[in-house]
Each structure stands twice: as structure tokens, then as C-alpha cells.
Amino acid sequence: MGLGRRPQQQLHRYGDEISVEVEAMDGGEDLISVLPDGVLGEIVTRLPIADAVRVQVLSTRWRHIWRSSPLNLDLPCTNYHYYNRVVSSILAAHAGPGRRRLKLECPYDDGEFYNSWLQSPALDGLQELEIEYQYHGENWNNRTALRELALFQFARTLRRLRIGYHTFPSAASMAALRLRLPNLELISFCSVDISEGTLHGVLAGCPALRTLVLDGCTGFATVRINSPTITSFAISPADYDSDDHYYGNPREKQTSWVRTRQVIIEDAPLLEKLLVLPCRRCSDTAEPFRLVRVVSAPRLRVLGALSAAIHKLEIGGTVFEPTTRRVNRVRPDSVIVEKRLLMQVVMLATSLQTVKILAVENVDSSVDVLANFLKCFPCLEKLYISASRGFRSAAGYDKQNPIECLEHHLKMVALDGYEGKRTHVKFAKFFVQNARLLELMKFRIFRNYHCEPGTTKEWIANQQRQLHVRSMAS
Known about the structure:
By secondary structure, the chain is of the alpha/beta class. The chain has a domain at 8-68. It is built from 13 helices and 21 strands. The chain has helices at residues 37-46, 49-58, 65-68, 80-93, 112-118, 149-152, 171-177, 196-204, 250-256, 367-376, 404-408, 422-434, 456-467; strands spanning 8-14, 17-23, 72-74, 101-104, 128-132, 160-164, 186-190, 211-215, 222-226, 232-236, 262-267, 273-276, 291-294, 302-306, 313-315, 318-331, 334-347, 357-361, 382-386, 412-416, 440-444. A 13-stranded parallel β-sheet has the order 3-4-5-6-7-8-10-12-14-18-19-20-21, with helices on one face. Strand 7 (186-190), helix 8 (196-204) and strand 8 (211-215) form a beta-alpha-beta unit. Helix 7 (171-177) runs parallel beside helix 8. The protein is globular. It starts with 7 loop residues before the first strand and ends in a 7-residue tail after the last helix. It comes from Sorghum bicolor. Residues 29-75 form the F-box domain.
């Protein structure tokens, strides 16, 4: 692998990862291959698998590096017995250390393979662990017990932990073992059943935690965030709305499922991103979160998604609550009066000047409603709006009472669910005409929107004419 006599190198650092760009020159000595094996191993483990294999084929110097480089095992499960055999053979053939990543994506019955894998020398020093119960058929739930060994075996070295479709050990068990994850930066739980005491105990044992994701988890009614390091937090409610989503013991369902009702950010001085996402499978009338309260998050920049599914949202002294509103839905031959839930500002004590990016989802998307939202976020730069029921224009912009973000800050607006209808065009024109610094508008069309084949370019041109847009990208 002759890469030249004087390769020009640019070194970039992203977190704990280092990438090297090399500008090759013809001829000369292979200077890369004289690097220590440890450095070459780091290079190989960061390459895509196909490229890493090509390297060892092309250069004899690199061939032994493959087996000794940090393990990065991510094997999809297609057959249970085949999967067990292949994973076992890979771990047996690797001398270690693991260091990088292990993803287990298969159900296990008696834990024989599971325990042997976790105790393999090839996984010493593992940094990233992902365990997910692979879905097979309809007889699934998140009651598969997570073995304590999965956490304590790598507690000192783990940086990222992703768990899906499992039940955590009890709070008493975790407390007795005094779990502490000093280097863990990311926790992502998907459909995990974990008690409130266990969850808060795990969070308390992660002094370096930066990212927390709780996607459809059960077992805790309230989650409280008190962390001096966390920068990003996302949560969505469990989707067990009906018996259709649960195939276990009905009595167990009635007595065991505990859904999250309160999300409280008590003290998060570095928190920049807060995402409270709606349940994708729940009905429109579901009430997944009764209270979302932000007591102290002075650096909050990204907030979403504000929706009527949140019963009450408090940020500092500003309070948002859903109210019922009558809406006239005009059809070609009739006018239908509908009742819709509308997220409104009921108390504005202080404006939320730190928020730069806001997402609003499934609220009554009319101009006058949105104007009330925008008044709360004077420094807003990016706005994402999703409206499954369409967009409406009910009021104009009163320039005698200007909205600060429209006058001085808003640069990008994205409309999800745009169909080019008359009311949709009026809604979009509100931003085109009034956002003085607007640079970009994005329009996302729902999949079920019908557009004649071969007319896409014509449709886009027609929309640009209606919006009076010449050079703005859509």
C-alpha cells in the first residue's frame, strides 16, 4: 500500500473519535504501515466492513490487524440457531479487546449463549452495548428480563447503552450491586419496563451522561431530570393503548403497566434539546403526559414537539394548555363544524429567548393560533410544523404589534402535510410575506397525497407562483 513519501495529513477530532485524511502522492515508502499496531487497529475498526476487509487483502502488513483490532459486532438475526452459532464463533476467534461495539438482536431462551457471550475475553473494555429482543410473530412483550451481567460486566468502560424490549432488574437488586457507570454518555431505552426507583438510580450513577432517550417505556409514572451534564433528552409515551398491542397475560397487563404521566426537568444547566414526542399509535384523544414542567434549563435551544397530547406544559413561568375550539371545515357542498384540541398560551410570565428551534405537531394550525406561539419565542430561527388535518389561515399579521422572531430572527420554516390547497397556500404565504429574514421553506407531502404522474415539476412551479417565490428553494 504505497501511499507516498510525504503524505499531507489533516487531523480532525469528533468527541472520542479521530479521523485522518491522507493526500496520497505517487511512489515512495508506505509510511502508514509503519504505525504501531494499536493505531492501525483504530483505523481498521473505523472503516466500513467492506473497506476493512479490502485493506487486509491488499497488504500483508495489515492482515493480522483484522483479528486484533477492536471488535465491532453488529449482526442482524435471521435465524435463531444460526445466529447463536455465528456470534459464538466470532467471539471465540477474536482475541480481544472488544472496546468498540456489540449488538445482540435475538431472543434467547435459557441464557446459556447470552451469558457466555458477555463473559467472552473478546468483549473486555466494551464501549458500546446494544441488546434488543428481536420481534417474532405476535407473542411478544417487554417482559424479557435483562440480565444484570449485561450492565455490571462493562460498567467501567461503557460509553453508550441501548436496550430494547426488556424488563430491568429490580431497584433493590440494582442498589445492592451499586451500579455506577462513570463513562456512560448515552442511554437509549426502547419499550423497556423499568421502575421509577431503578430509573432514577441508574441516572444518578451516570456522572458523564449527555444523552437520554426513553422511547415508549413503562414502569414509572414520573421521570425527574437532575443532571449537571445532560445536553439532550427525548421521551415518548408507551403505545399500549389497547389489547391489540399486548399478547401476554391480561391480568398482568392490568396490574403491571405503569405509564409515564409527568416529565419534570428540575435542574439541567447544560440541557439544550428537549423532545417530548407524541405516541405514534395512540388515538387522537389519548393523554400520554399530564404534565411537562421545565424548572431550570437555562441553555434550552431545541423544543418539540408541542402538541395537544400534552395536558399541561410549563416552562419557567410560561404555561401552555390545550383547549377545545370549534372549527368550520369547508367542503365543496357543505360546512362542517368540528371540535379540535388547541394548544394555547394561558400564561406568559417570561419569553423563552433561548429557544432557537421549535417543533409543533398536530395542533390547530391556523395563523392566529401560531402567532400566539411565536410571541413566546422571540429569538426563534427554525420552525417545524406538522399538521395531519391541514393548515388554515384565519387572521392577518398586525404590524402594529410586531412579532419579534418574524421581524428579526426566523430563517427557516418547514411544513409537514402541505398539499397545495388554497388554505395551505395562504398559511405558507403568511411566512413568505412577514418573516423578514426568511431564507428557506420546506414542504413535505404526505404519502397518500395524489399527484398525477409526470406533473410534479408543473405542480411545484404552480406552488411557487402562488407563493410569489422565484429563487427560494422548496
